[in-house]
Amino acid sequence: MLRESFRLIQRFHRLVDAAWIALAWIIAYWLRFMSGWIPVYFGVPPLDVYVSHLPLVLLVWVAVLSYGGVYRTDRWWKVAGEWKTLARSSAMAMVLLVSIIYLSTKVEFSRVFYACFLGLAFLGLLSIRRILRSLFQRARKGPSGSRRVLLVGDNAFVEPFCENIEEHPETGLAIRGQLLAEEERKGAVKREVLGDYSALRKTLQAEWIHMVVFALQLEHGWRLKEMLKAIDDLAVDILVIPDVFPIMPLHPGIEEFEGIPLVRVRGSPQQGSARLEKRIVDLFFSGIAVVLLAPVFLIISLLIKLTSPGPVLYRQVRLGMDGREFSLVKFRTMRNDAEKENEPVWSVPQDPRRTRLGALLRKYSLDELPQLWNVLRGDMSLVGPRPERPEFIREFQREIPAYILRQKVKSGLTGLAQVKGWRGPTSLEKRVECDIQYIEGWSLGLDLKILWLTLWKGFVNKAEQ
User: Fold this and answer.
1) Which of 298, 284, 313 is nearest to 381 (CA)?
2) Are residues 62 and 117 in the same domain?
3) Are 124 and 162 in a shared domain?
4) Is residue 233 included in any domain, yes or no?
5) Same-domain check for residues 18 and 128
């Protein structure tokens, strides 16, 4: 129900934005050629030429605005930074539109017209959001505008749920109070407590509750059936927030299989079409990188051969997505057969096993470049948690149980932890924290942002700063 409400709002925003963009295109034509405010030196072009491009204009602008996150309900409702998001997305849409028109048609539109359109589109989109936000707020302040919510229980997801309600006034939901068991009232309670679980039916009737949300802790889960039976004749909406926190949830959600509802506690965000999209991006950018960096590959290979005996490439067994083993390829940076002297050890600064050239390659992460081959093969992705050796993974899992969640996506050549500086002999906990944050918030936009930060900042090792 809440999801459908959000989707309805998003569709409404897109429709209003599309209508304004089309109107801004026509107004810009009038300003440039018909208003008389701007000199026209080479005659007035026919309006139908401009109107015929409107479908392309709408397609490009709405697609770029969607890609830029403009229609995310949480971002739409927050005023802070709104103009920056719109300005960035508007500029991207304009550059893409002009490029497509220039490359695909022989029509030359006025630059002044483009400037008028961009200004009108941006200011209009910004103003529309302020107006819609005001209208939503007024509508929700009315006597029939809000829906009273009763919370039952206090598991780990209650606070995030309440914060989301506050950040999304467009839902019209308002927390009326909470029912708690006696032992749950020992700590600080942030909301009004209207009684214990036995007062459920009485509270629903007395407080005119529209929606009851069960957020029982795992040990109180057995009470749910009893409470549902007690209110089955009352016309209230019922939602259940399962307490899955003790079992390390990752990318949780609700699915349906042939009419059977399934609660996904742990899963990968990179499945189905998302997995295909990520693979296309990997093949496209890694293919370009291999072609452009071919001379660098050749030079490094020759230098390794000239400065130390042994093979140019070094292969190691690593664990990738779902714990599958693959052979990771790197430029050799250590003395030949350095690890035959003892057991595999964790990389440390100033590793005595490095060659002089190897130290330089590691400093600038050039030894990682052959992993583009792993990306092309499908063993890895351009962006994701860094792959690790099986010996270390078993050890890390004992120290940090959440470490295994990194295996739910493909390993990456770079990742969120790396662009934040958590690389090499740095805090393992911080790296895992960044990796889980990446998996939970994964999107193609996030991948492109990390790739850009990798190129812009390079790999930075906090331990060596």
Assistant:
1) 284
2) yes
3) no
4) yes
5) yes
pLDDT per residue, tens digit, the chain (465 aa), is 555 666 677 788 889 999 999 999 999 999 999 988 988 888 888 999 999 999 999 999 998 988 877 876 555 555 556 788 888 889 999 999 998 988 887 778 889 999 999 999 999 999 988 887 777 666 655 544 568 899 999 988 888 888 888 777 666 788 999 999 888 877 667 888 999 999 999 999 998 898 999 999 888 888 999 999 999 888 888 988 888 666 666 666 666 666 676 767 677 777 777 788 899 999 999 999 999 999 999 999 999 999 888 899 999 999 988 888 999 999 998 887 666 655 556 565 666 778 889 888 888 888 999 999 999 999 999 999 999 888 888 888 888 877 888 888 899 999 998 888 877 667 788 888 899 889 888 888 889 889 988 887 654 444 433
Residue-range definition of the domain harbouring residue 179: 147-247
- Which of the 8 DSSP states describes residue 42? S
pTM to 2 decimal places: 0.55
Report DSSP letters for 206-237, one per residue.
HTT-SEEEE---GGGGGGHHHHHHHTTTS--E
Radius of gyration from C-alpha coordinates of the chain: 28
- The verdict on 237 and 152 lying in the same domain is yes
User: Nearest Cα to 214, choosing from 223, 205, 206?
Assistant: 223
Identify which of 119, 19, 111, 3 has the alpha carbon closest to the alpha carbon of residue 62: 19
Phi and psi for 362 in degrees, rounded to 5?
-65, -40
In a domain, 255, yes or no: no
Q: Does residue 11 lie in a domain region? A: yes
Domain tally, the chain: 3
Q: What is the domain-level CATH number for residue 170? A: 3.40.50.720
- Structure tokens given for 284: 């496209």
Q: Dihedral angle at the C-alpha atoms of 217, 221, 224, 225, nearest 10 degrees?
A: 170
Tell me which of 141, 172, 200 is where a domain ends: 141
Among 437, 409, 432, 410, which Cα is nearest to 422's? 432
Residue keyed to tokens 């942002």: 449
Domain assignment present for 304 = yes
Helices 294-307, 356-363: axis angle to 10 degrees equals: 150
- What is the token pair recorded at 242? 């399962």
Helix%, strand%, coil% for the chain, nearest 5: 55, 15, 30
Rounded Cα gap, residues 355 and 98, in angstroms: 51
End residue of a domain, out of 141, 168, 184: 141
